[in-house]
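Exercise 7b. Backbone tokens:
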């Protein structure tokens, strides 16, 4: 961990900063996943340069700190409500000075009805949210230090956003999303049979909702499960550990290089606070989907 970081929204037992995050209101549960607030202090001239790998789209309302994302080989400034597509590779970003942000994950099944775009058009990219939706979200995140009112305002802003579109949820994408969190080692053909669609239909619906192929979605989920184990953000039993093992060491190295740009050993030693924040929020959702929502989160200090 970077010793100059002071997390105002919690830490893990290993000292990694985390967000305050919670599920959305029940009526929004098919559209968005975890809502979060993150507040971290560091020196005014301190810089965190890191990456993120998220399996859903995100709204991140960047409130304080000087944020930049690496796009096309150039660092570009971002602030306010930003729509992030899901990532198939490390998305480089950095922030200077103390920072605060809030937002939520957009569930794949609701991506099209909320954003109005094919997820492939924003995968591994970001876009500023402007207009009424952006203004509403900017207002919702105005005071992240007041957690309860901020979460209530974010829930209300999402309801308004849903009303602007059809509100429809792609049931195929929704079922696929739930199944990959239970077991990402299954084959695409097996999942298509269980969801009762052809592999071709599954591929088309997943690409539009997740931004990439079903095979890549499963591959990324498998990597994120292993990364969570490395970071102490999971409590896998022996059966789960066996399922997470890669075919061989070279396969593991290839996957870590693809998703982090590092070997497994280098990743284990590296400080990745921005990656960890998104990963920990994902793990909270997995914990909830496993029916353990009422239990204490085991990795929190």
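Sequence design result:
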């Amino acid at each position: 961990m970077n010793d100059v970081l002071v997390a105002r929204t919690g830490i893990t037992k290993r000292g990694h900063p985390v967000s305050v995050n919670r599920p959305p209101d029940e009526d929004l549960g098919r559209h968005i996943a975890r809502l979060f607030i993150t507040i971290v202090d560091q020196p005014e001239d301190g810089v965190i340069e890191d990456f993120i790998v998220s399996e859903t789209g995100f709204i991140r309302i960047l409130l304080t700190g000087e944020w930049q994302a690496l796009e096309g080989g150039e660092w570009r400034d971002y602030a306010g409500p930003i729509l992030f597509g899901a990532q198939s590779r490390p998305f480089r970003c950095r922030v200077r000075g103390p920072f605060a942000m809030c937002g939520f994950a957009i569930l794949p099944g609701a991506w099209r009805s909320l954003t109005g775009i094919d997820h492939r058009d924003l995968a591994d990219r970001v876009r500023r949210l402007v207009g009424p939706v952006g203004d509403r979200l900017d207002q919702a995140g105005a005071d992240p230090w007041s957690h309860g009112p901020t979460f209530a305002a974010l829930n209300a802003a999402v309801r308004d956003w849903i009303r602007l579109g059809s509100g429809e949820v792609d049931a195929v994408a929704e079922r696929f999303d739930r199944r990959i969190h239970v077991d990402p080692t299954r084959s695409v053909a097996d999942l298509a049979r269980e969801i009762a669609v052809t592999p071709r239909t599954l591929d088309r619906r997943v690409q539009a909702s997740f931004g990439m192929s079903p095979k890549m979605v499963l591959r990324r989920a498998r990597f994120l499960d292993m990364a969570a184990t490395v970071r102490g953000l999971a409590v896998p039993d022996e059966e789960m550990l066996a399922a997470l093992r890669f075919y061989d060491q070279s396969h593991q190295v290839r996957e870590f290089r693809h998703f982090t740009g590092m070997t497994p050993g280098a990743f284990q030693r590296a400080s990745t606070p921005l990656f960890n924040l998104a990963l920990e929020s994902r793990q909270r959702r997995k914990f909830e989907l496993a029916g353990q929502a009422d239990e204490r989160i085991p990795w929190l200090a």
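Instructor comment: The chain has a mean pLDDT of 93. Residues 171-289 form a domain with the Arc Repressor Mutant, subunit A fold (CATH 1.10.10.60).
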